[in-house]
Design a protein that fits this description.
There is one protein chain. This protein has 10 helices and no strands. The chain is an all-alpha fold. The protein has 2 domains: about 90 residues, Helix-hairpin-Helix base-excision DNA repair enzymes (C-terminal) (Endonuclease Iii, domain 2), CATH 1.10.1670; about 100 residues, Orthogonal Bundle (Endonuclease III, domain 1), CATH 1.10.340. The longest helix is centred in the N-terminal third of the chain and has 20 residues. It is elongated, with a radius of gyration of 19 Å.
Length: about 210
């Protein structure tokens, strides 16, 4: 390992340590009581906040706790339940479609394989990685807008798309942090390193940040 490579490794390690100190609890802020409910919540969360999703699912999950409940509810009623969520029509259609697949192909269970997850309507790579990470404790790095933004600002990745960023983070993040890095970056981006008005004065990564706000 060259001196420069060692310097980069130490810097990444320090970023991870500080994030862990700031966010020792990296559990998702989505509220759910089963694997299926979590999958539905993650599909609903695309381009929506966890707060918005939780408001909707608090009511929805009183009626729909299983795939059978959702199929009984039906598309029209689901649309009414989630209409305050962005892109709700498409999301409702995807939820009903993936629910039927789970019922017919997986006996109502959520598959543990990324490839199987990505075949479900409304489930892309990011959603599949979130499910694998949170439900199945896999070191899958999910790249959303927060992770994409912070990876650039912190100089963790030069990638401009989620797949490239995921690949670069996989290479540099120490194994011990791979299960938690996505959620730590999400929380830091949600509460500190915001897109428009980052709270740099309260950021414990300020001296490690490469972002120029001028």
């Amino acid at each position: 390992m060259t001196e420069n490579e060692k310097k980069i490794e130490n810097r990444v390690e320090e970023i991870c340590k500080r994030l862990t100190k700031s966010f020792p609890d990296t559990r998702t802020e989505l509220e759910y009581a089963s694997d299926y409910m979590f999958l539905v919540s993650v599909v609903l969360s695309a381009q929506s906040t966890d707060v918005q999703v939780n408001k909707v699912t608090t009511r929805l999950f009183k009626k729909c706790r299983t795939v059978d409940d959702m199929l009984t509810l039906g598309l029209d009623n689901l649309l009414q339940e989630i209409k305050s969520i962005g892109l709700y029509t498409r999301k409702a259609e995807n939820i009903m479609a993936l629910t039927r697949i789970l019922k017919e192909k997986y006996a109502g269970a959520v598959p543990r394989c990324r490839e199987d997850l990505e075949k479900l309507p409304g489930v892309g790579r990011k959603t599949a990685n979130v499910v694998m990470n949170i439900l199945f404790d896999e070191p899958a790095i999910a790249v959303d807008t927060h992770v994409l933004r912070l990876s650039e600002r912190l100089g963790l990745s030069s990638g401009k798309n989620p797949l490239k960023v995921e690949s670069e983070l996989e290479k540099i993040i120490p194994d011990v942090y791979k299960k938690s890095i996505s959620n730590m970056l999400v929380l830091h981006g949600r509460y500190i390193c915001k897109a428009k008005k980052p709270d740099c004065s309260n950021c414990n990564l300020r001296d490690l940040c490469e972002w120029d706000d001028d």
